[in-house]
Specification:
The protein is of the alpha/beta class. The chain has helices spanning 36-46, 66-73, 147-157, 181-187, 196-204, 214-221, 260-268, 280-286, 309-316, 331-342; strands spanning 4-8, 13-19, 25-29, 49-54, 76-80, 90-92, 97-100, 103-109, 118-122, 125-129, 132-133, 136-137, 166-169, 179-180, 256-258, 272-276, 293-294, 298-299, 304-305, 322-326, 346-350. α3 crosses α5 (196-204). The longest helix is centred in the last third of the chain and has 12 residues, at 331-342. The protein is globular, with a radius of gyration of 22 Å.
Amino acid sequence: MQPIQLFDTASSTYTYVLFDENTRDALIIDPVDDQVERDLATLRQYGLKLLWTVETHAHADHITSAALLAEHAGARTAAPAGCGIKTAAVQLAHGDVLNFGKETLQAIHTPGHTAGSMSFLWRAHVFTGDTLLIHGCGRTDFQSGSASDLYDSITKVLFALPDSTTVWPAHDYQGRTHSTIGAEKAGNPRVAGKSREQFIAIMNALNLPKPKRIDEAVPANLSSGIRHDADGPTLPADGAAPPSAQHVQPAQGYAGDVAPALACQWWQSGQAVLVDVRTDAEREWVGFVPDAVPIAWKNWPGMAMNPEFDQAIKAAVPAGRKVLLLCRSGVRSIAAAKRATELGLEAYNILEGFEGNPDATAHRGNLGGWRKRGLPWRQN
């Protein structure tokens, strides 16, 4: 039996779904928030009940959808105890086992890329995260990385598995999907035949650029993907207006971030056009803003980019008006604001989104958002 392997092009991240063929109980490893609708569709396609979301470490190149999947699918979150992901329901130690149906996933502590990094063993398959890649390995120059620890994790822990064990990495940048322990022992150019000192020298000489999303991704991933739109301030649970409610917060790549109240004021006064970039399904199920212009950033199902976005948003915004972008979590509206700016529009992201951030129980609607703030909305 093989895992279901899914790929996020933007971050070159592999996500894996494993399941019990009889009970249909499932778990997902390293899910990506931009792909949550894809992953939910995959669960429906295979008739699966998601029991667990599992992280190999706190990623620096994408934001996890663990909290979103906990909210939508009722899954429990699990993460390595040494990664500081305190919102995870289960803090995994070396040797711990997660059960899904009659299947089991065993945690293997493989530090080096980060101090808490883990790999996971299922049947004759090992999911290595950023520890062991296909003919490569994860970097060690940030997030408590250690080249010495990584060498031990690869050569003493992973290479102790049978040569036939299939290796499923968290990333690949050349279109490769999997390898084997035997193949990596024999041909991984960073590790095969290398002494510890040689390996450390190779890693120290990599001089890789800083991950583009590290400042956004790591804080969010330490909270299972719970984040604030555009890295906005934490909002009080009592619904009070945020401190910057009447001010534009500066942003990179677009005009700025605005609180829901200010966005509504601009919209109702005619200064700006309000564009809802959520999917038709989200507006139908969760609620919508009357008279907002619906232009999906990505199309449901599948979450492919909307090829008509550019033309539609240019047609929707008259000359001289601002455009306000609204989504659920801030990821799509920020991306849409950047694209609108590239198209020559004065574009702003609306902080908190339509539903606000998830609370400690991963429920939305309690910690801010357009709807929570009492602004115009309806539900079918």
